[in-house]
Amino acid sequence: MRLSQLKVGEKGTVKEFTDLEMSVKLMEMGCLPGEEIKVQRIAPLGDPIAINVAGYQLSLRKREAATIIMQ
After folding, report:
1. Is 37 in contact with 43 (CB distance < 8 Å)?
2. Helix, strand, coil distribution of the chain in percent, nearest 5
């Protein structure tokens, strides 16, 4: 399952990334493999997505969230 498929309130653990370039940026922001992510909010039109990761809130575009594979 991809992060972009989670609903508000759902949690998951980062397993891997599908885009190498984007994965570097996401890991710099705390989205490391093994890290738990919880979806806090989704904008009315579905983009962006607010997530809670590594103790802080991060907003991602839906296409960015789609590159994160969850367990």
Report:
1. no
2. 25, 40, 40
pLDDT for res 46: 82
The pLDDT value recorded for residue 39 is 94
d(CA 34, CA 5): 18
Q: Please give the pLDDT value at position 26.
A: 86
Question: Environment class of residue 62 by beta-carbon count within 10 Å: exposed (0-12), middle (13-18) or buried (19+)?
Answer: middle
- Token look-up 């802080």 returns 56
Alpha-carbon torsion 65, 57, 41, 8, what sign? Answer: positive
User: Considering the domain 3-70 in this protein, what is its CATH number?
Assistant: 2.30.30.90
